[in-house]
Structure formats: structure tokens, C-alpha cells
Design a protein that fits this description.
Strand order of the largest sheet: 6-5-8-9
Number of helices: 20
Structural class: alpha+beta
Number of strands: 11
Helix content: 40-55%
Distance between the termini: 89 Å
Shape: flat
Strand content: 5-15%
Number of domains: 4
Length: 467
């Protein structure tokens, strides 16, 4: 017996306008300008040239007034979505280059064969956040074959690793801390202190790690003063050349135009949205005329031309409406962030930065969390205390001893203060830092201390110890 039936499924299909809006929302201002230029080039009914004076008496009509049946209320259609105010050129700012991008850029300057370059690029992609290669050479050879279809051998991989170990930051590509420190020491100008430091790391690394100073002096036949001088070189080395960056943002190098400019007057916060190089979009007169001429016409060619123009007009309408919705969405989101972090934006004091997640702003604005995420991504605000990506202002938080929520940035700031005030001959362990933080009113777990310390680029207590 064959059973037949209907299965109803509820599907939400995005309209062309919604798709267009989503794409525009996530674009920073420079990408938006490029997109507008591309749209002007690809859609013949759009025109950013000023209208001639002879047309000044013609009635202006918003593109929103275009009817679905194709009726055009006037032969010139003008979009005033950007207004007529001047668009000043704002300064551009440089944001930092990502660690991997920096290494790949340096690789581009090396005289290598395509095969060698592929191997080196794969090695770069295998480095961890600290800049170390935590995998053995044999494993890399296998991975290159299976994952990248690159046939090689341990000697060739080792050779390319040596190339990478010559890159900046010095110490990158090391397989362990000992190799990392030795690479950095070899890059320094030779001196008695540097030579001693090389011997300490090369021949007495275990004793060095355990701070067995007398054993080192005895093994190497050096005085305490020589040991102290060598240590002065070692403590300046970077144990994490990849850079333990703050988890709030890490952007590839680019020249940026801020999407928002903060204005602060007597405690009142406001902002502007630069319109740098974003042209005004108008519907080209001759194409609107073509539609009018086709009305009531029986000629097939004229009807086909009118249909083409109508399709382009619809596309223009969606694009312009998407631009408007982008402006509205970004404006509403930025206003919510300013209101939420009002005290912080007055002077940039990080202790006033409240814990804030995407959900908080989504609830205020009524937008989806995914929409807020798109707004925040790759957008920047220029303030009187610096320029920041919007992602910078979002962080988790926890309660202090008084039950008040504090942001992770405040916790990191206090942690830095604790370490900065410690006795360097007896630096505080992570367990002792938990106690110190508690004295200051912050209940933080040891693993959280270790995490924040790593993100701040602060080594373990034994590495901070001074003779």
C-alpha cells in the first residue's frame, strides 16, 4: 500500500533587499565605497554625475516612489539618501598586521622556488599563537603529502624552517623555548655577556629553568657578576615571539577610515558617520525617459528595452534601500554602545569599561545578535583618546567582592599592577596572584590568572625572577 501525503515545511527565504542589506552592513566604509563604485559601473540606470542646470525645474522623485507596475511619476528620479552636506576627507589610520600575514609577507621577499615557497607557507600555517612549531618534522612531511599534496622530505622541511627562523620577530619558528632563546641570542651583537648567555641556554638550560644559579656558575666557571650580566641579556628576550595578543582584536594591516567619529561636549556623547567618497546616486535621465517613451508603445524592441530598464531600476531600488538600512542599523547600534559604555567614552578610562556582549546590544536595539556581529566586525570609531575597533568594547565580565560586574579589561589592568609592584627577587606565582587580586576585591581563579597573564605577554614567575 502506497501512502501519499503533503509535508509542509516553513522556510524563511531572504529577499534580494535583505541579502543586499546583510552584505552592506558587514562592509567597512572603504569596502562600501568600492561597492558603490562597482554598482555605478554595472548598473546603467545609476548616475553620480551632477544634474545639468537645464533640468533643475524638473520634479525630483525618490526612488522609493517607483511603482511595481513600472509607472514612473516623473522622468528624473533622484535619490537623496546621502543628503547634500559636504563630505570632508578624514585621516586614515593604520592597524596592526596579523602575525601570519607578516610572516607570509616576509616569505614573499625570499628567492625560493614555488615548491620551497609552498613548504615554507605550510610551516607558517602550522605555527601556534606563540610563534612556535610544536610538531616534529616527520609529522610535517606526512601532513604536507596528505593535506597539501606536496611531496618533500625532512631535510627540505628543515631547510625551510631555518629560512622562517630568520624572519621577524626574532625567535619565530623555534621548536622549544631553548631554541627560541638561542635564535634571539645569535641575532645579538657579540659581546662577553651574550657569549655567556649562549652558554647558559645552550649547556645549562635545565639549571637555568630551575634557577640553580650556583650550579651554573660552577659548571661554566663564571662569577656571580658574569652570571648577572648574562641574565641581563636573557631577561630581555621574548619567550613568545608570536605575540600573546589581547583576544579582543587582531586585524590585518590596512589603512582605514573610521566608520564613526565620537563627539563629546560637557559629558554629552554624540557621533557622526563619515561619508568619505560615497557618491550620491541618481537614476540616469535617459533611461527614465526610455520607460516613459515605451508606455503604450506596440513596438517589441521598445518593450524589451523598457523591461531591461525596469529590471535595473528594481536593482537600483534594492541597492539604495539597502544603503539606507545600513546607515540606520549602524547608527542605532553605535548609539546603543555609546549609551551602554557612557562613562568609558568620556575619557577612555578602562576601569569604566563595563562587561558587554553582543546579546546586550541586540536586546537594546532589537536586532539579531548576528546583525550586531556584522556591524561590529571591521568597524572603527575615532575618539579623543584613540581609534578603536568596535570589537574592543565587548568583553565578558565577572563580579568583584562587592557584587559589581567588572570587565576582563579591568581585571587585566589590576593584574598588571600586581605584577608591576611585586618583589622581582621573589616574583608572585599564579597562586599568590590569586591572593593579591582577592585583596584588591577581585575573586579570580588561578587558571584565569594564567590565561590573562599569557594574553598580556607576562611570563611565569620563574622567568620574572631577577638575581
Amino acid at each position: 500500500m502506497i501512502k501519499t501525503g503533503l509535508e509542509l515545511k516553513q522556510q524563511q527565504k531572504l529577499s534580494p533587499l535583505q541579502i543586499q542589506t546583510i552584505k552592506l552592513i558587514q562592509m567597512p566604509i572603504q569596502e562600501l565605497e568600492q561597492k558603490v563604485r562597482e554598482e555605478l559601473e554595472s548598473n546603467p540606470v545609476l548616475d553620480d554625475e551632477p544634474a545639468p542646470d537645464s533640468e533643475s525645474e524638473t520634479k525630483d522623485v525618490s526612488i522609493d516612489a517607483i511603482k511595481e507596475d513600472g509607472d514612473i511619476p516623473a522622468y528624473r528620479l533622484k535619490v537623496n539618501n546621502w543628503g547634500k552636506d559636504p563630505r570632508p576627507e578624514y585621516n586614515t589610520f593604520s592597524v596592526k598586521e596579523g602575525f601570519t600575514q607578516s610572516l607570509q609577507r616576509q616569505l614573499g621577499f625570499r628567492d625560493l622556488s614555488p615548491h620551497q615557497r609552498e613548504i615554507a607557507s605550510f610551516i607558517i600555517g602550522s605555527l601556534d599563537d606563540d610563534g612556535y612549531l610544536r610538531r616534529d618534522i616527520e609529522t610535517l612531511v606526512d601532513d604536507l603529502a596528505f593535506r597539501a599534496n606536496i611531496e618533500t622530505n625532512p631535510e627540505e622541511v628543515e631547510e625551510m624552517l631555518k629560512v622562517i627562523q630568520d624572519f621577524e620577530p626574532v625567535g619565530v619558528g623555534a621548536r622549544d623555548l631553548r631554541e627560541c632563546l638561542l635564535i634571539q641570542l645569535r641575532s645579538l651583537k657579540p659581546s662577553p655577556e651574550v657569549d655567556t648567555a649562549k652558554r647558559i641556554i645552550g649547556d645549562c638550560f635545565q639549571d637555568f629553568s630551575n634557577k640553580h644559579f650556583q650550579k651554573i656558575c660552577s659548571k661554566l666557571g663564571i662569577s656571580e657578576e658574569q652570571l648577572k650580566a648574562a641574565f641581563g641579556k636573557i631577561v630581555k628576550l621574548n619567550p613568545a615571539p608570536g605575540g600573546q595578543v589581547d583576544d579582543s582584536y587582531n586585524d590585518q594591516s590596512q589603512q582605514i577610515v573610521p566608520d564613526f567619529i565620537l563627539d563629546e561636549h560637557d559629558g554629552v556623547l554624540d557621533f557622526t558617520m563619515p561619508r568619505f567618497n560615497v557618491p550620491e546616486i541618481r537614476v540616469n535621465k535617459k533611461y527614465a525617459d526610455l520607460l516613459l517613451d515605451a508606455k503604450g508603445s506596440t513596438e517589441q524592441a521598445q518593450k524589451e528595452a523598457a523591461a531591461f530598464v525596469k529590471q535595473k531600476l528594481d536593482s537600483a531600488k534594492w541597492f539604495v534601500e539597502a544603503l539606507k538600512q545600513r546607515q540606520n542599523t549602524l547608527s542605532k547600534t553605535m548609539r546603543a554602545i555609546l549609551d551602554y559604555q557612557h562613562d568609558y567614552f568620556l575619557d577612555g578610562d578602562e576601569s569604566n569599561l563595563k562587561p558587554m556582549v553582543l546579546k546586550d546590544i541586540a536586546e537594546i536595539t532589537g536586532f539579531d545578535i548576528s546583525t550586531i556581529s556584522r556591524v561590529v566586525n571591521s568597524k572603527f570609531i575615532e575618539t579623543h583618546f584613540g581609534i578603536f575597533p568596535l570589537k574592543y568594547f565587548f568583553s565578558e565580565g565577572m563580579e568583584n567582592s562587592e557584587g559589581e560586574e567588572v570587565s576582563t579589561r579591568e581585571l587585566k589592568k589590576v593584574l598588571q599592577e600586581c605584577i608591576g609592584e611585586e618583589d622581582k627577587k621573589k616574583p608572585l606565582t599564579d597562586e599568590q596572584l590569586v591572593v593579591e587580586m582577592k585583596k584588591r576585591g577581585y575573586n579570580v581563579a588561578r587558571r584565569t590568572i594564567a590565561k590573562y597573564r599569557g594574553q598580556l605577554g607576562i611570563p611565569l614567575a620563574r622567568w620574572r625572577k631577577e638575581i
